[in-house]
Specification:
- By secondary structure, the protein is mainly α.
- The protein has one domain.
- Helix content is 67%, strand content 0%.
- The protein has 17 helices and no strands.
- Helix 4 packs parallel to helix 16, helix 5 crosses helix 13 and helix 6 crosses helix 7.
- It comes from Arthrobacter jiangjiafuii.
- It is a multi-pass membrane protein.
- It is found in: Cell inner membrane.
Length: 365
């Protein structure tokens, strides 16, 4: 059953690459362009997964157990992680799928991310991480504190996300020039036609739901997750302990494979070597990602996507702190380079500054 993790990862990497589903861009756009389209798409994933995860729990397929809320580590780790993803040019999952596109900067960020996650979780700084995460409050979910059915929160979240999606769909659409189609049928749909942000989000949400029973069947009682599997992969390479290679390790390997397949099929794969400044940012950003994710208990997937779907305090606190950390990094590294009003820079200059050197094209709607 471990092999199912590989197939889920391939599907996730393929969909995220083709849909240009960049969580870093979603958080960054709030501050740089005041645009919430991709944040709304991200919340579609959370809402879809929330319906699925509580349905699986009600059916007895999985058993959700609320845990204490490590508030201090979540706040500190979330802020660090949010700041780091701007430097690295992508969050944990984004770094994986961009590594599959051939971005050398993402390879470097991925290496330091996995390494420092291992250092923080099981290495020399594991004691520090444990002590930080030992500062907790007892109640860990919104519905347990409010003493209400989680389905009430699912309904409210779904309604709010639905209103936000409707708002964005009602906005005027701009037609962009495009080359004539060179493929037809399914090949055109999969590899050439731009993917809609919200359709991509629904597919990712369905993949996230499928991950739960498949992962549980192997004894790994969790859904999608990136940080611990990345740490386990590093520890396996060091120790050779085969027990570390669980469903999650196959998942992250699958993301690389799936994104590579998508990039090759769409003609977007290309080895891109960054300049020295981007190399330093990638290495530093990746290291801080590992530190932040270990402290917070997860990255933009494990916390901001999976824990939020369960209405845990950890997930929603991490999400808010990651957005705040991203805003701080954007202000220090992107917005200060914006041209003054009337200088002729315009939105194009902002967009260019927002994309790290050597990174993939901006997200497509």
């Amino acid at each position: 059953m471990l092999i199912s993790g590989l197939f889920v990862g391939i599907a996730l990497g393929f969909v995220m690459q083709r849909g240009r589903f960049c969580v870093t861009g979603a958080f960054r756009d709030i501050w740089v362009t005041r645009n919430t389209r991709w944040l709304t798409a991200f919340m579609v994933v959370v809402a879809v997964q929330s319906v699925g995860v509580f349905a699986l729990d009600a059916a007895g397929v999985i058993a959700l157990e609320p845990a204490a809320f490590p508030w201090l580590a979540t706040i500190v780790g979330g802020l660090i992680f949010g700041f780091a993803i701007v430097l690295a040019g992508g969050c944990a999952t984004g770094t994986y799928y961009r590594a599959g596109e051939g971005l050398v900067g993402s390879w470097l960020a991925l290496i330091t991310y996995a390494l420092f996650a291992a250092i923080m979780k099981t290495g020399p700084l594991a004691g520090f991480t444990s002590s930080m995460r030992s500062v907790t409050v007892e109640q860990g979910t919104f519905h347990s504190v409010l003493n209400v059915s989680p389905w009430i929160l699912v309904a409210l979240l779904s309604a709010a996300v639905g209103v936000a999606v409707r708002h964005h769909l009602r906005k005027p659409k701009f037609t962009m020039a495009a080359l004539p189609a060179s493929k037809s049928g399914l090949a055109h749909l999969l590899f050439e036609k731009p993917w809609n942000a919200f359709a991509t989000a629904v597919v990712i949400g369905l993949i996230a739901i499928a991950a739960w029973p498949l992962s549980w069947a192997t004894g790994r009682e969790a859904g999608l997750g990136i940080t611990t599997p990345s740490s386990n992969a590093v520890n396996f390479l060091v120790t050779g302990d085969a027990e570390l290679v669980d469903w999650g390790v196959f998942l992250v390997l699958g993301i690389l494979v799936g994104s590579f397949i998508a990039a090759k099929g769409s003609g977007e794969f290309r080895i891109r070597v960054p300049d020295a400044n981007t190399v330093l940012k990638s290495l530093g950003g990746g290291a801080l990602m590992g530190v932040g994710a270990a402290l917070a208990g997860g990255c933009t997937i494990g916390n901001a996507m999976v824990e939020t779907a369960q209405f845990s305090f950890q997930g929603w606190t991490a999400l808010v702190c990651m957005i705040l950390g991203t805003g701080l990094a954007a202000r220090l590294t992107i917005m200060k380079r914006r041209p003054p009003a009337g200088s002729g820079g315009g939105a194009g200059a902002v967009s260019g500054a927002a994309r790290p050197a050597g990174a993939a094209a901006p997200a497509r709607s």
